[in-house]
Design a protein that fits this description.
mainly alpha; about 325 residues; 14 helices
C-alpha cells in the first residue's frame, strides 16, 4: 500500500506542484465547435428576445413606420400617445385592482387546497387515493360544458361576483399531480417515521416538516396559478356583467375596441387606425409587465421544479 502511495505522489524534486491544473491548448476544431455553439445560443436568444423588444419599441414609435416595415431595432418618431390613452382611461386602474385581488386571493386558495390534497393523495396508507385520483383525472378529459356550468354558477349565486374567478378553479388537477409526485419522490419516508417517534400527527408533520422542504414546488405551482388568474379573460367575459368588476384583460379589450376606426374621413381613418395599433402594443406591455417583473425572482425555483419526479440515484 505504501509503495502505491509513493508511486502516485509527486517526487520531491518535481517542478510541477501537486494541485496545479494542467490546461491543454485548444485545437482549431475545438475553437470551431465553440464558435458554432455561441452562434446557436445567440440565435436562440435573438429569436426569443426580439419579438418582445419589437413590441416595446413599436408601442412608442410612429405607427406609419411600423406598418411600412421600417422599424427594426430602435424606436422611430417616439410618441407616448398610446400609453397616454391607455392610462388616461379610469377603467384600467379599476381593472388592475380587480385582477390583483382575483389573482392574489385565487392563488392563495389554490395553494391552500392543492397542497394538502396532494399530500393526502401521496400517502400510501390512504386507501381511497387511487379512486379519488381517477375521479379527479377524469375531469381533465370530460366536462359539463359552458351552459351547464353557467346554470350551476347561477344556482350557486356566483355570477357577477369575485368568487366566480376563485372557487370553480380552486384546484388544478395537473398541478395536483405535480405536487403529489413531488411529495412521493422528494420527501423521504424516514422523516415521517422520525416525526411519529416525536409524537407528530399528519397535520403537524405536513406543516412543520413537509411544507418547509417544499419551497420549490410551492413556487412552481404558485406561479402557474398566478399566471392563470392574471390571464383569465373568459371568466370575466361570460360570468361578469358589472363593469366595475371586470378583470384587467376584459378592460384592455374594451379600451382597444373603443378606439377602433369609426370616422368616415380617409385621413382620420388612417390616424385613428395608427393610434389603435399603438394602443394595441401598449396594452400588450401593460398586461404582461407584472409577470415579467415577478418571474426573475422565481426562476431559481424552476431549476429544482423541472427535476420533480425524476429518477434519483
Amino acid at each position: 500500500m505504501s509503495e502505491i502511495a509513493q508511486s502516485v505522489a509527486p517526487q520531491s524534486g518535481s517542478s510541477i506542484p501537486w494541485n496545479k491544473k494542467v490546461h491543454q491548448r485548444k485545437s482549431v476544431g475545438d475553437w470551431a465547435v465553440d464558435i458554432i455553439l455561441w452562434l446557436v445560443v445567440a440565435l436562440i436568444v435573438f429569436v426569443v428576445v426580439y419579438p418582445m423588444w419589437f413590441i416595446v419599441i413599436a408601442s412608442v414609435s410612429d405607427q406609419s413606420m411600423v406598418s411600412t416595415g421600417k422599424l427594426t431595432l430602435l424606436p422611430i418618431g417616439t410618441t407616448f400617445a398610446g400609453y397616454a390613452r391607455v392610462f388616461g382611461d379610469s377603467r384600467i386602474w379599476q381593472g388592475y385592482l380587480n385582477t390583483i385581488i382575483y389573482t392574489v386571493v385565487g392563488t392563495g386558495v389554490n395553494l391552500l387546497v392543492t397542497l394538502p390534497a396532494a399530500f393526502a393523495l401521496s400517502r400510501r396508507e390512504f386507501r381511497p387515493r387511487r379512486v379519488i385520483m381517477f375521479l379527479m383525472t377524469f375531469t381533465m378529459y370530460f366536462s359539463g360544458g359552458l351552459i351547464p356550468s353557467y346554470l350551476l354558477f347561477k344556482n350557486l349565486n356566483l355570477l357577477d361576483s369575485m368568487w366566480v374567478f376563485i372557487l370553480p378553479g380552486a384546484v388544478s388537477v395537473w398541478n395536483l399531480i405535480i405536487a403529489r409526485s413531488f411529495f412521493e419522490t422528494s420527501i423521504p419516508e424516514e422523516l415521517h417515521d422520525a416525526a411519529q417517534i416525536d409524537g407528530l400527527r399528519y397535520t403537524g408533520y405536513f406543516l412543520k416538516i413537509v411544507l418547509p422542504l417544499s419551497s420549490a414546488i410551492i413556487a412552481v405551482i404558485g406561479l402557474y396559478y398566478f399566471v392563470g388568474h392574471w390571464n383569465d379573460y373568459f371568466t370575466g367575459l361570460i360570468y361578469i356583467q358589472s363593469a366595475d368588476k371586470q378583470p384587467l384583460q376584459v378592460v384592455l379589450q374594451n379600451i382597444l375596441l373603443s378606439n377602433k376606426t369609426t370616422s368616415s374621413s380617409g385621413t382620420d381613418m388612417v390616424m385613428q387606425q395608427q393610434l389603435a395599433d399603438q394602443i394595441k402594443y401598449g396594452v400588450i406591455i401593460v398586461s404582461t409587465l407584472p409577470l415579467l417583473v415577478i418571474y426573475p425572482f422565481l426562476q431559481k425555483y424552476f431549476n429544482k421544479g423541472v427535476m420533480i419526479g425524476a429518477v434519483k440515484g
